[in-house]
Amino acid sequence: MSVKVRFAPSPTGYLHVGNARTAIITWLFCRNQGGHFLLRIDDTDTERSKEEYEIAIEDGLQWLGLSWDEKTNQKNRTDRYDEIIEQLKGDGRIYACYETPDELGLKRKSQLSRGLPPIYERPDEAQIQKYIEEGRQPHWRFALKKEPIHWQDLVRGEVNFHGKDLSDPVVIRENGIPLYHLCSVIDDVDYGITHVVRGEDHVSNTATHVQMFEAISGQAPQFAHLPLIADMEGGKLSKRLGSLSVKSVREEEMLEPMALVSLMARMGSSDPIEPFTSLEPLIDSFDFAKFSRNTPKFDMDELLRLNGKILHETSFETVQVRLANMGLQDLDEAFWTAVRGNLVRLEDIKDWWQVANGPVDPVIDDADFTAAAADLLPPAPWDETTFKTWTGAVKDQTGRKGKELFMPLRKALTGMDHGPELPALLPLLGPEKVKSRLTRKAA
User: Is residue 241 part of a domain?
Assistant: First the structure.
C-alpha cells in the first residue's frame, strides 16, 4: 500500500511553531516512505477563516522546506459532505438532538453526582417529539455502536476503547454546518489517506473517528499520536515557543528554519538531536518506532545551540540577500567568515559589524602595554598572518604570553572579552582603527 498523508491546518490564525511539529513529522514520514503529501485547508468555519492566514500557512511550510504534492480546501467540498451526511442519516448513524447547552450541562452534573460517567444519553421518541413541538432546531450526533474500538498506534502501540464508554459526538451544528470530525473523516476517505499523524490530545476523538471510517468506507487509516511538548518544568509549553507564529519567527529573523526542523524532528525520539543543514538525513533516518510515549521537553537553549551551529556552517552566498535586507549590504564574505562562528542568531552579526566599524570604547587596563603594542604594528597590507607576526613581536618585547598577551589586545580592539578569532578580525579592522583603539581612542 502506498503511503498518503495530510496536514490539515485551519486558517483561523497563523501557523504556530508548536503546531508545525505535526507538519514536520508527518512530512518526514511521508518522504521516508516515498509517499504523497496532501495540504488540506480546514476552512469550513467561513466566519473565522481568512485568506491571509491560508497564505501565511503556505509561506511558513515553504520556509521550513516542506513541499506538498496536492492541496484542497474543505470549503469547496460542502456538496460531498451533504451527500455522505444524508447517507449516514439513512443508515441511522446520524440522529437529531435538541437539548440546549444548559440542559446538557445539568445532565452531566447529575450523572457525576451519581458517580456515573458524563456520557450523552440518547432521548426517547416522546422527548424528541416534545422538543420538535417547542420549535427547537436540532444539532446532530453520530451514533456510536456499543462495541470495542481498537487500533495499533504507530507511537502508542495497542489502543483500546469501548463505544459504551464514549458520548456520541456532535457532528453537525444547529445551523447545519458540519463539524471538523465528520468532514475530516470524509476527506480522509475520499483522498485515500493511509496514515493520520496528530497529537495525543486527539486519542479519544480518534476512537469515535474509527467508527465513522467504518460507517463510511469500512476501514480506518493507521494512526500515530504524538505526545504533546512540555516546557522544561513539565508544564504546558509557554509563549516562548508554542504560540509563536512561524510567520513572526521567519520575518523577525529569530531562528533558522533548519534549527526548528532539527529540533522538532528528533524531539521525543531515541535519535540524538543534532544540527542539520538539509532535510535529507532526517528523511533517511525517520522511523515512528523511535518515538516514545514520554512527554518531550522543549529547551530554548538547545534550540539556540542548534541555530548557532547551523549558522556556523552557513555560506555567505546563502545569507547575502538576508544581510542586505538587514541594512548590511556592505558586509562581505571575509567578514561573514570571520564572525559567523560567534553567532547564535543571524541578527547577532549587527553587534560584530558595530565592533568592526565603530565607534567602540576600548577597554584598556595597561596603557603602557597597549601603546607598546601599537608601536609594533606591522606595515600594511595586512592578512591573516599579520596577527601572528605582530603578537610575536609584542611577546618578544614585553615578555607577555598566553592570556596575559592576547586578552588585553582583544579588549582594547573590540571592547569585549570574547569574540571572533583575532587573526581573522585584525585585517577587517585595518591599521588605522587598530592603532587608534590601542591608544584609547573610540574608533
Answer: no
